[in-house]
Amino acid sequence: MRHDGDGVAKVMAAPFQSVSNKARYNTKSTLSVHINGPYVELDDFNAPADSVPSQNRSNASKPSRGKFYFPNTFWSRSFAIIGVIETLFTVAIETWVFISTSRRFDEAGNDDGTLRLRSFLGLYIFALFYELGLSYDALKHKNTFQLVGLCICNFGLFVYGIVQMKEIRETIDGLSKSEAAGNRLWNHYQLELILIPVFIGVCTILMIFVTWRLRAEFSWNIYQTMSADLQMNRRYTTYQVYIALLKFDFFFIFGTQLQVLLAMKDMKDHQFILQSVMIPVAIIILILAARFCRMEKKKSLMVVMIFMLVIVGSFVMVVLKIYSSTNSNDLAHFEVSLTLFSGLAVFLIGVTLANMVICMVNFGKGLKEHINRSHKKRQTLYPEYHGDEAGKTRFVLS
Length: 398
Fold this sequence. Notes:
Layout: E1 2-3, E2 9-10, E3 31-33, E4 40-45, H1 54-60, H2 74-107, H3 111-141, H4 144-175, H5 179-226, H6 230-263, H7 270-295, H8 298-322, H9 335-361, H10 367-377, E5 393-397
Antiparallel strand pairs: 1-2, 3-4, 4-5
């Protein structure tokens, strides 16, 4: 570009080319000359129109990502890969031990004896798959606190893997006809059962490191959603922690109730029916707890809070029954694992209720609008094609 003596700008350049090479922009723009400097300002370019095929235009108005989310950064992919490899490796070993021990003791006529082994191994497999699902959910919604919770949960699986070895060894010894037979059977599974906590321990360390790297990415996402409002940022953080806690609550509630049901042999007993009903009721309560908080329904949340306190009371009664001297049930067979699950469930529900109260205090302070706006933002990758004004761009060539 050059200036002649009259101050009129003459553009001696190649024609403008679209970045995508798929469409040409309408050149009904203004070329203006400014006295303060030799530059041209191109204002209000129209969005791609006539030269874009109709199929491309229809695709441009749709979100580029479908309903299924794929991790799109190095660290999010790394976290996903660690979770998938950990799940496949551990579930393969657990499934092999589960099938092998079930066949061995079923042939020996020890149906009741295999119940304890099946509960340990089956619950561990379910925990791994559930954790993998939570990993996908945390990456999709960029929830740092859920990732931190997954690291803690993975460490819990590491500890439970060690406890599981002790419980399986005792169960095998009790079901075997002799001590020598028990030792031979234990040696058959010992190496694989040792590999599980070792592998999960290594994966836990890797997950902690990757979560620390993802913290910066997700923090920037929160900043974009909440802007620089520190108060709103704190409220959104409390909400994210609350939602993450509800997802972990479900696992420990389900794990506790499953072990209680396995300990009850009589399926016609009213206690068995009552405990069975608690699982779907707990799922509905947790879903409503998340929905009412997002909709800022204070009275509805207070009703949900009462139901959650009832669940806490039920778990406390289970623990008291385990260690009661007049215990007539078979809960004592699940003493270690049931105490661990029910204790963690009570603790997590207590923390969830505390966060629920804080969220209720934050109602009516603008968080609801921010959450809804952030949900709409995630559905569109190209907002510039939505609407006439949004399709305009502005360039300055100096």
